Every structure is written in structure tokens, then in C-alpha cells.
């Protein structure tokens, strides 16, 4: 899967208005920032979503892709469970900042799992 396929999938997800749970396992593909943005945009239309699990590990997502993805996810006002896996992408401390800001907007979250292993986050990103 690449950014073009991600756009198609994002558009299809955006039409699923009554979804309450979405689990996408897209590990080890060629998804970049544009693909992450397309998923996020599609997910933002799922206003009844309460559980979201995105496994985007081993792709090519950078801070920009994380910024767009979190911008759209934060619009899912009903989320109570969020699981994001960005293992081995190109995320640095700036991306972690975007994640934190987006997650803070999800005021109904009761469960959060975030995997950022094997990225380029230093101690400033962990603060």
C-alpha cells in the first residue's frame, strides 16, 4: 500500500458514518505523510467512533504526517480508546509534540496506547 492506495481507503472510510470501532493494520507498507493525512481525513468523518487502533509501523511517516493525522483524529469527539503504533517511522520530537496536542483534545479518552519505538525521539521529545 502506498499514498495513492491510502487516499482511496481514506475516502472509503469517510463514508462509514456509523462506525464505532476501527482497527487498521497497515504495518510495513510504503505509506508516507500524504497517506497518513488521507487516513486521518477519512477517520474524522466517523463521528460515532469510540475505538480506534491504527498500526502504521514500519512506514515512512514523518512529523508532518503525524501532525495531519492527529489534527483529524482530535475531531473524533467520542473516542474513548485510542491505540497508535508508529514503530520505525521518521518521527522526531516535533511529531511527539503534535501527538500530545492532538491527544489532549480527545477529552473522552479512557484508554491510550502509543508505540513510538525505533524513531528519532530524543529526551526533549519525551518531556
Describe the structure.
Strand 2 (51-55), helix 3 and strand 3 form a beta-alpha-beta unit. The relative contact order is 0.17. A four-stranded parallel sheet has the order 1-2-3-4, with no helix packed on it. It starts with a helix and ends in a 12-residue tail after the last strand. The model has no long low-confidence stretch (mean pLDDT 91). The protein has a single domain, classed as Alpha-Beta Horseshoe (Leucine-rich repeat, LRR (right-handed beta-alpha superhelix)), CATH 3.80.10.10. The chain has helices at 3-13, 33-44, 63-73, 93-104; strands at residues 21-25, 51-55, 81-85, 111-115. The protein has 127 residues and is α/β, with parallel strands linked by helices.
